[in-house]
Amino acid sequence: MGKDRLGRPIAYVHAKEHIKGQHPLESKEKLIILFIETARLLIEPPVEEGTAIIDMFHIGFQNLDYQHIRFMINAMQNYYPEALGLGLVLNASWTFNTVWNVIKSWLDPVLASKIHFVKSSKELAEYINRVFFLKRLGGKQMDFKLRPPTKEDEALVKFFREDK
């Protein structure tokens, strides 16, 4: 999704698309590692870090999965400690403050110092050029909508898994 103002690749995370219990924890853990490893491939020297924008737009209690969050934090702190250059939490409601206080207690102070709350597109523009904003934020990047797998998608995945 482009690069931030310091040249770090940007990854948008749409928290409302995560539904607690929808998928097995092991699958989500594998996806997190795949995501981090893929992001590492997008980094071009001399840049060694990435930027994550965690969009909290329209999240509810069904989206908060402490086990999932703890795994992400553990992976970042213990296995990829220098991978995150900047974490931007966008559109967090005032009710998220209680949740954030719990999450922040799990964070190493160095990682916590990289997390910033952004309340508006104007604030986001301090970190990211507007051309790399999603369309719904006034930018040029396409808005994503989760599309569940079709029967054809599932058949293709089954074919790949059975192919020895």
From TrEMBL:
Stored Gene3D superfamilies: CRAL-TRIO lipid binding domain (3.40.525.10)
Listed SUPFAM superfamilies: CRAL/TRIO domain
Name of a matching Pfam family: CRAL_TRIO
Xref: PROSITE patterns: CRAL_TRIO
InterPro entries: CRAL-TRIO_dom, CRAL-TRIO_dom_sf, PITP/CRAL-TRIO
CRAL-TRIO domain boundaries: 1-145
Protein name: CRAL-TRIO domain-containing protein
